[in-house]
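TEACHING EXERCISE
Course module: macromolecular assemblies
Task: Read the component lines below, then compare them to the predicted structure of the full complex.
Student: A.B.
Group: 4
Components provided:
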Amino acid sequence: MGSVADLQPGGAATLTRPDPMLPRPCVVRRVHQDTRDTYTLELEPTDGAPLAWLPGQFTMLHAFGVGEAPISISGDPSRPDRIEHTVRNVGSVTAALVAAGPGTVLGVRGPFGTGWEVGKGRGSDVVVVAGGIGLAPLRPAILELIAHRADYDRVVLLYGARTPEDILFTDDLRAWAERDGIVVEVTVDNGQHAWRGRVGLVTQLVTRAGFDAARALALVCGPEVMMRYAAQALSDRGVRPERLRLSMERNMKCGVGLCGHCQLRELFLCVDGPVLGYDRLAPLMSRAEL
Amino acid sequence: MQTIAQYLPEHPFFAGLDTATTDLLAGCAVNIHIRADEFLFREGTPADHFYLLRHGRIAIEVRTPGPPMVLDTVEDGDVVGWSWVVPPYLWTFDGRAVTDTSAVAFDAACLRGKCLVNPLLGYDLMMRFVRLMNQRLQSARIRLIDLYGGTNG
Amino acid sequence: MAEEFGDTGSVDAKSTAPPVPQSNPQSIPPRTLDTAGLQALIDALAARRYTVIGPTVSGGAIVNAPIRTIDDLPRGWGDEQDAAHYRLRRRDDDAFFGFAAGAQSAKPVFFPTDELLWRGRRRRGEFTVEPESDGSSASTAGQGPYAMLGVRSCDLNAIAIHDRVLTGRVQADAHYAARREDAFIVSVSCTDPGGTCFCASMGTGPRPEGGPHARFDLSLTELLDGGIHRFVVEVGSERGAEVLADISAPPAPIDDLAAADEVASSAASRMSRTLDTDGLKELLYASAESPRWDDVASRCLACTNCTMVCPTCFCTTVNDVADLTGDVAERHRVWDSCFDSDFSYIHGGTVRDSTKSRYRQWMTHKLGSWIDQFGTSGCVGCGRCITWCPAAIDITAEAAALRGVPQPARPF
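Instructor-supplied answer key:
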């Protein structure tokens, strides 16, 4: 008598539903090194069909035989033919992704998750607060703001990086400030003598920035500790919790609400998030180890 | 430009002080200007002043065998300097102007004397500086966690 | 009782139409099967190319395995269950289903511990994926859809919960869906609830009720009252009716229907544990900082037994493996557990590092946030997490403790 462990799946010989765990092959067209450990990959699906995505969404990016990682799309939403991902090398999967040169085929599943919903800021000020690699998921939102600049009042970007060498998208930052009507304030945790800019926490920039908090839309992304303090600072200034949107991060294995890893109490961050309002998140962020 | 006596009551750092006190503080203060890359104060020297920046940026730096490390920057409207409160009243870091800077310089040695004579004034000033130090300490501590840093954490 | 059916007590089974149980949408009255009939049912399912799976005795426990004859079933076996305690015992009758929740549920059949999702090959710098629904080139002769025999009401509810979790939301787990497709379910009413059962508290048993939360094709109630060893068979679907039509099963007499009801109500009154579910989600949410979590953490070993035996736990992880050449890779979906130390690992650290936070997560999810996510409790009251916990942690006792009910001194 065999055991259940020996059983092969029964039922239909082929799956009757599309398998969300099957990746789409995408070829790396370009790789740009942003900083010493961060690279931006530009991908194109091998079947040519564009990927429809919204700013704030992520894909599960797959390195053949190594594994997958959830990576936010960091590209221009008006260019769906180019899928850009900014990847920081922090583990075995991301190490394989950043080593993928042009011509390498990677797997893409997605896009998944909720987006920034930048349009909710029409007619008011928009404050974007980014910490470290958090600027990458916010880049599509900023590009969307710029594409419809007249729909928004003041647009302020507050960006904190570890050191001047870790600042991402320096060309974009300059263009946004000089050409696109965005107030860009950058600070670093510590700098060397040659750095002429600000040194200090990005949350300190929140207290000083010029925007009408009561009506503003705030978009925040970065390490969770930074987001917690930034959200508090924005709240203290009067930004309404439901207009204060954060992109949360948790361990993700499937991206489609099936594996259970990304749960934050009742929220599945891959389905209910990753972008969520502070009205829902505040009680969940204030507890340790939730 | 406003006189110091007109400027102080409008400044958040001094909010809540009566006119007599702000006049007293103004009486201990002068306007100064320094050029980019000049030092406002140097590590190890007597801390007989604190400063309120009207316009510009000061980098708080520490000298190293290599290039100096910038630990903090102080911007328009910020107050810099609390070594005048803590014995032995010596600056612990360098303060270098990143840009041309204008500031109000307070004679801290004089103020120390006034605080001894007028404990209420002393307490009030100390509380304001405690809040400032708290802000800077929190900022420094959080940056120590190195939230953005490290690979393969 | 005869009065409930509105007759005078002396009935002629052929001339009085029995009342229609609510669980039977097909309006087919219940039938009776004797033990030969049970074998005929197994044979009829096998003839329709089902792989029949049911309870068997193996390694001192009741486990699922393929069934060919009624002798494969645990005839005459019962069980003793308590916190951290499981033993089989010989019954003094030859009931086929005289035990409570077996070591597993239906979960490993529809949701295997390790499922191959796809295999990919890399050639000349590009790779192609071969989606597969079965694990290998194994022959599928006789491997048609599954027929589960002997599913308890708690596990029936758990299957419905898994259907909702795994196929009823944003995207479906395609492999689970394929295994569930065409599966045939023969459930059984519990006659002897176990020492850790509390399905009555959860509204999930002891009798399979049918309906959207507990669908069955056929459901059996075993009757051992000194007469013929027989089963009352309720029909829950058209498919069930068709299979029943393959074998000879006379209509069940009124007295047998009454006896089946009596079995169910007797079992419901013999639950060993209760769980007060009133306001439980809100209580759990509000108890995030309760000192009770430290207490349970001092006992919990984070061994993950509870999540493995729980019929509704569904967490998995993905393993990508390549062969030595690196040119062939497979992706597997394997069971995971929120008690695992790196379950919640992200760059920068593990969110739920302490055992306390992991136990809190499991219990709050199972009894609380599950309701916000899926509309029902995640617990079906099967008691397995209590039986199989080596530290004898009892989820019903923990819930009561959070409510402030003083707990009796523990034996250890």
